[in-house]
Amino acid sequence: MPISVLLGEKLFWLFVLLMVTAGASEQAMSQWASAFAEAGLKVSKIIGDLAGPTLFAVLMGSARVFYAKFSEKISLPKFMAGSGVLCIMGYLLAILSPNPSVGLIGVAITGLSVGILWPGTFSIASKAMPRGGTAMFGFLALAGDLGCFAGPTVVGTVSGAFNDDLKKGFLFAIIFPILLLTGLSIYKKLTYKKVVFEV
């Protein structure tokens, strides 16, 4: 598919949105997990890294292993939507819990929830736009990197405006999984219309 045609496809821009929000949802929490653990639990950076990013990464990897094992039995868009809801729950638990240890469970839940979002978007994009080619995947990777930059930046900027209160930054960052769910809802409607039209 020529790049000019690719850029004119609504689905392509929807996948760009999904990649941006997937990257932002993941990295907004991941990049600040260590600082969140240190501030909440009053522990050293080493312990904070173990309690925050390491737990986040282990559960993120677990989600990918789980889906790889059961992918034939589970709808990928539905799994991604469920992950988006779980992501919001993880953020809210980290934000609202008065107990720092429980807040870290929220961080862990977020890691579990974002595991499938990035690779899942690539998968549904390749299925929905099989002629997208390397240009599509290149643009999507770039969109994901943009999200990985935007997520932590938003958290840091908002937190800084509220005396380095990371919970305020995470509260603002909930917009990313919300936008992801919105994008998945639009994807469902567009693909449903396509199926009905083809039938």
Count of discrete alpha- or pi-helical segments spanning 4 or more residues: 10
Write out the CATH superfamily name: MFS general substrate transporter like domains
Residue stretches low in confidence (pLDDT < 50, at least 5 long) are 195-199
Shape descriptor: globular
Order of helices and strands: HHHHHHHHHH
Number of strands: 0
Average pLDDT level: 89
Instruction: Assign the structural class, choosing from mainly alpha, mainly beta, alpha/beta, alpha+beta, or little secondary structure.
Output: mainly alpha
Molecular structure report:
By secondary structure, the chain is mostly helical. The protein has a single domain (35-192), classed as MFS general substrate transporter like domains (Growth Hormone, Chain: A). Helices cover 85% and strands 0% of the residues. The protein has ten helices and no strands. It has helices at residues 3-6, 10-30, 33-41, 45-70, 76-96, 100-114, 117-128, 133-161, 166-173, 175-198. Helix 2 (10-30) packs antiparallel against helix 10, helix 3 (33-41) packs antiparallel against helix 6 (100-114) and helix 8 (133-161) runs antiparallel to helix 9 (166-173). The protein is globular. The relative contact order is 0.20.
